[in-house]
Write a structure and sequence with these properties.
By secondary structure, the protein is an alpha+beta fold. The protein has 12 helices and 16 strands.
Length: about 500
């Protein structure tokens, strides 16, 4: 039900509770489970938050974006520790005292401290850490000392900031990896590095992230939006090399399940019941270079109008070497070289039906739909089969009762609150205040963009879509879209 659009601030919905996720499975094999960074899977009630969904503890933010330093979005602070105390009570500890500290460095320090505590306690419990860095999501922010590293190599200020944000994340990952080695955890640890989509091309009116020569980017059905940088680091289990087999994000759950259960040798503490799984166990594909058991995956099926992002209808399927797109594959739909690449950006030639051989044409220049009508028909029927069993989008509208101003400037699970406090049993709510406040927190996402980019985000985003996709202004109305969905009314 999350295939349509993201969970915007103040919307009372989330990942359905009947979906069993990775930490819930690993807990049955006595793993300690920890989440750090971005959640963005629902926060209107506590039962949708990380510690109620299989994690032992959580340090990060519930929403989808925020200021990297003030940890504020839409007039509300959203940085917290969640954990259970000795009585089993869920403690929701809002960390206003971290105002002014860069989130990437906070998350790395928290994770390193967590590893040291496990070592000091001689804790032999296997652990799972889900580390969702805020970098390099907008708004683009990074401490000056990272930017200074690129003072001579990159001239453009926005490109320099983006590169510095990658470096900040890279340094944090390196510090965590060094800690694993120092504490002798590295020999029995598997690190998976991945992303949820390709780079956001033309972000804020400027090519800072490029998927070139792949086509498109974040939100698109093209390879630039579907593919993402990924690697697995496990020196005790894997030899170095590359793997180009078909692996999908849904495959991680059954793969980790296999690893956590030692390929079924360990029995869970309680029977595990899940909805039918879309994923495959890919460990033999990864570790032994065997062929992937996967031959297809749905990229997306979306028929309802989207407030921000791609244009509907969108149907897209990957089947063996072939990809079928019906409707709109973007935006973004073109090829976006990085600023220093001299090759010009070719305008896309879109059609309502697009068919590509991804093995022979991974950059999606040659639409073969007119040459393969039988294959188009077969894959269309396959998409219709998927559509017949598809869960409807769960998106619901903004609830004004969520406004942070009603809760002393803090984002909280508002449907579980009354008179400024949670009324549900088993929850303790705590706010850690700073010793002294930093500059006034930015109130809206729109103001964040204006502050850090020098332009109003609504105008910039409208310009992105118009320039990148050769579309008419009336087709998108991005200014209205972004004002309605990112600016929280604090009046």
């Amino acid at each position: 039900g999350l295939q349509h659009d993201v969970i915007y601030p103040g919307e009372p919905w989330g990942l359905p509770l009947d979906e069993v996720i990775i930490p819930q499975i690993l807990k049955e094999y006595n793993y300690s489970t920890h989440a750090v960074g971005k959640w963005h899977l629902g926060m209107h009630r506590y039962k949708f938050t990380p510690v109620q969904r299989g994690f032992d503890d959580f340090f990060g933010y519930y929403l989808g974006a925020q200021n990297y330093n003030t940890h504020v979005n839409g007039g509300g602070c959203d940085l917290r520790n969640n954990f259970r105390n000795s009585k089993g009570i869920l403690v929701d500890e809002v960390r206003r005292d971290f105002d002014g500290q860069y989130s990437t460095e906070l998350y790395a320090k928290y994770t390193i401290d967590l590893l040291h505590k496990k070592k000091q306690k001689d804790d032999k419990t296997p652990f799972f850490i889900y580390m969702a860095f805020q970098n390099v999501h907008a708004p683009h922010m990074v401490p000056q000392h990272y930017i200074d590293k690129y003072s001579t190599d990159i001239k453009d200020e926005k490109e320099k900031t983006f590169a510095a944000m990658v470096s900040a994340m890279d340094e944090a990952i390196g510090n965590i990896t060094d800690t694993l080695k120092t504490l002798k955890f590295d020999k029995n640890t598997i690190i998976v590095f991945s992303s949820d989509n390709g780079g956001n091309v033309n972000c804020m009116g400027h090519v800072t992230s490029s998927n070139y020569p792949y086509r498109g980017g974040k939100r698109a059905m093209y390879e630039g939006g579907v593919r993402s940088p990924s690697f697995i680091w496990a020196p005790a289990f894997l030899d170095s090399g590359e793997n180009d087999e078909m692996i999908h994000v849904t495959d991680w759950l059954p793969t980790f399940w296999r690893l956590g259960s030692l390929n079924g040798k360990l029995k869970p503490n309680h029977p595990i019941s899940t909805l039918p799984l879309d994923g495959f166990n890919q460990w033999d594909t990864i570790s032994q270079r065997q062929s992937s058991p996967r031959t297809e995956f749905v990229i997306n099926i979306d028929l309802e109008p989207v407030r921000c992002g791609h244009i509907v209808p969108t149907w897209a399927l990957r089947w063996n070497d072939w990809k079928l797109i019906i409707g709109n594959g973007g935006p973004p739909s073109g090829w976006y070289p990085a600023p220093e690449v001299s090759e010009s950006c070719n305008n896309p030639n879109q059609s309502f039906i697009e068919l590509y051989n991804i093995k022979e044409d991974p950059y999606e220049h040659q639409n073969l739909s007119h040459l393969k009508p039988d294959l188009v028909h077969t894959l269309t029927l396959r998409l219709m089969e998927y559509n017949s069993t598809m869960v409807k989008p769960n998106n619901v509208g903004y609830d004004p009762n969520s406004k942070p101003k009603l809760f002393d400037g803090i984002w909280v699970p508002w449907l579980d609150f009354k008179d400024g406090k949670p009324f549900v049993s088993g929850v303790k709510y705590v706010v850690k205040e700073p010793k002294q406040s930093s500059d006034k927190a930015t109130d809206t996402y729109e103001e964040l963009s204006k502050e850090y980019y020098g332009k109003e985000s609504t105008k910039v985003h409208k310009s992105i879509w118009l320039q990148g996709n050769q579309l008419k202004e009336e087709d998108l109305q991005q200014e209205k879209c972004w004002k309605e969905n990112w600016k929280i009314d604090n009046n």
